[in-house]
Every structure is written in structure tokens, then in C-alpha cells.
Amino acid sequence: MDIVYKEIDIDIEEQIVAIWGRWVIECGCLHYGEGCYSLAALADGVPVGFISTFPLQLPQPLNMHCDAYIDDLEVDEDYRRKGIASRLLAMTEEWARSYGYRQLRAWSSDDKSEAIPMWYALGYGVCPAVMRGESVISEFVGKPIYGFYAVKVL
Asked: How far apart are CA 143 and CA 131, in angstroms?
């Protein structure tokens, strides 16, 4: 299997939306510009995974610091457990270090708890968390969403 990794452009974004759905755009999951990094894994020119990261200021009392926050990490079910998410994370970590970020963090809903061993294997700390839905998707607004944080000091 030959996977090519490319920064996401408008053509790749359109393919991602066609494959994963409009929620990718509606929820603002792809980030571009200063301090952002969006990368796709392509098999035969078709996205089979992607990651998107943006700068996120830490809350009080650490609000003078900013780190890289993974807004979304997705891999097509048929391509899971083949190292694609690990490679997307490794490339994002390399970019984040070179950009000057001191840590990389993410949040995941508990329906993706099968990824927890991967996070640990890649040197991330993991802890449970509950978020209150603030999504544009009405079924989640104001409701608790159970999941976990993952963080790695770079």
C-alpha cells in the first residue's frame, strides 16, 4: 500500500467532505493559515485519512501560552491499524516542534476509545474528560459528550 501525505488544499478538502461528510466544514474541522497545519493521507490520490491542527490558547492561569491543538484526526475504517494515524501524528509533531509549539493536544469522544493504545504507544498522556456540546450539530448542543484528552510535550 502506497500512501502519500500532502498538505490539504481546496481539491483535497472537497474530496474529504465528499467522503466524510459536510460536518467537516460545518464544524470547522479544517484549519489553514498562520499556526495551522492540515495534512491528508492519500491512497491512489484519494484521501483515506486527515489531521488538522490549530493554535489554541490554554485556559487560566496558563492563558499566556498557546499550544497546537488537533481538531480532527480521521482514518477510513478500511485503512485503520496500518500506521496512517501514527504517521499523520508524527508529521504533525515534527511541524509543531519546528513551529515552536511546546505541546500537542487533542480531545476525542469515547466512541474512538480503540485509539487509546495508539496514543499511549506514541508517548501521549491520556485522561478522561467530559465536554459540553457546543457544536453546530443540534443533537449535541448543551449535552455532555464523554471522551478523553490526549497530550504530548514536544
From this structure: 8
Tens of pLDDT, residues 67-113? 999 999 999 999 999 999 999 999 999 999 999 999 999 988 888 88
The residue to which cell 492519500 is assigned = 42
Contact 68, 93 (CB under 8 A): no
What's this model's pTM, rounded to 2 decimal places?
Answer: 0.89
Q: Do 26 and 137 form a contact (C-beta atoms < 8 A)?
A: yes
Distance CA 89, CA 52 (A): 10
Instruction: Look at strands 125-132 and 144-153 and give their pairing.
Output: antiparallel
The answer to whether 118 and 82 are in contact (CB under 8 A) is: no
Q: How far apart are the first and last CA of the chain?
A: 30
User: What digits encode the pLDDT tens for the residues 16-40?
Assistant: 999 999 999 988 999 999 999 999 9
Residue 24: all three cell numbers together: 467537516
**Helix (H) or strand (E) run with residue 47 in it:** strand 46-57
